Amino acid sequence: KAKGFFEEEGLDVEIEQPGPNDQLTPGRKVARGMATFGISSSESAVSFATSDSKVQLVAVAALLQGSTSSICVLESSGITSPKQLDGKRYASYDGRFEDNIVRQMVINDHGKGDVHFHSLDFHGYGESKTMTHGSVVASYLQEGRSDSTWIFTHWEAVMAKRQGVNLNLFKLEDYKIPYGYSPVILAGTDTLASSPEIVRKFLKALDKGHEFVVENPKEAVQALMAEANHPSLSDQEFLEDSQKVLGDMYLAGGKWGRMEHQRWEKWVDFLCEKKIVLDRDGNVIPRSSIEVAKLFSTEYLP
């Protein structure tokens, strides 16, 4: 936005940042027509596809090609593998599939999956301290309020390292969890049907923006700080270190936003095979009822 890429496409875009007073996740805001696009995980698309929501959410671009998701603990905790999370606390964002994914990771590591899950205040958005720090590591793990949580290593892990806090990280893929794309840009099926050109223009602007970030990381960081004006985005050196971690994850073959059907397929197969996708009554939703091709689309990318 700061570089005028949205304006070049004739778009007037207002960027909303979640805060303590929010009552809806980005995905739910999109589904209810309160936002045209939202940033979330691939699980959100799966969740809405297996719910009674009238509007389904479709991932129209992947922000990153690689995965930076990990379950983390403080090194000082003495926990060195997921199986040692049995009997320990986990600070949960209350994603529909989150706790069962973590439980399965522990089981895959030959544990029992007996993790003590407890909720963050409104998915982590509802506590000013977490939002100010920009990290559950700082607001929960370091204060002894929990033993583990889910983080993006390019953010919380970099932040912890700069603060001299050592973490042990358990990457999902290292424990037989074929994690999907995250974060992704979500749009509602109603928007895709009624305003496909708006979607294309929006993604074209984002494509320009990410190419700029790759080529000019320092200038991009300065623009982010000025535009966002958020407490968690006030440390330029931290943001530059974070970008160094992400440097080769933005593009695939020089292209931004790309997603592959096979990766989506493996992710949905895993969720269904481990009986993680359940309806409101706790019944297993069969794999045959989920059409992977309807969960994402790359046709709107430039």
TrEMBL record:
<dbReference type="GO" id="GO:0009229">
    <property type="term" value="P:thiamine diphosphate biosynthetic process"/>
</dbReference>
<comment type="function">
    <text>Responsible for the formation of the pyrimidine heterocycle in the thiamine biosynthesis pathway. Catalyzes the formation of hydroxymethylpyrimidine phosphate (HMP-P) from histidine and pyridoxal phosphate (PLP). The protein uses PLP and the active site histidine to form HMP-P, generating an inactive enzyme. The enzyme can only undergo a single turnover, which suggests it is a suicide enzyme.</text>
</comment>
<feature type="domain" description="SsuA/THI5-like">
    <location>
        <begin position="1"/>
        <end position="220"/>
    </location>
</feature>
<keyword id="KW-0408">Iron</keyword>
<keyword id="KW-0808">Transferase</keyword>
<dbReference type="GO" id="GO:0046872">
    <property type="term" value="F:metal ion binding"/>
</dbReference>
<dbReference type="InterPro" id="IPR015168">
    <property type="entry name" value="SsuA/THI5"/>
</dbReference>
<dbReference type="Pfam" id="PF09084">
    <property type="entry name" value="NMT1"/>
</dbReference>
<comment type="similarity">
    <text>Belongs to the NMT1/THI5 family.</text>
</comment>
<keyword id="KW-0479">Metal-binding</keyword>
<comment type="pathway">
    <text>Cofactor biosynthesis; thiamine diphosphate biosynthesis.</text>
</comment>
<comment type="subunit">
    <text>Homodimer.</text>
</comment>
<dbReference type="GO" id="GO:0009228">
    <property type="term" value="P:thiamine biosynthetic process"/>
</dbReference>
<protein>
    <recommendedName>
        <fullName>Thiamine pyrimidine synthase</fullName>
    </recommendedName>
</protein>
<dbReference type="GO" id="GO:0016740">
    <property type="term" value="F:transferase activity"/>
</dbReference>
<dbReference type="InterPro" id="IPR027939">
    <property type="entry name" value="NMT1/THI5"/>
</dbReference>
<keyword id="KW-0784">Thiamine biosynthesis</keyword>
<keyword id="KW-0663">Pyridoxal phosphate</keyword>
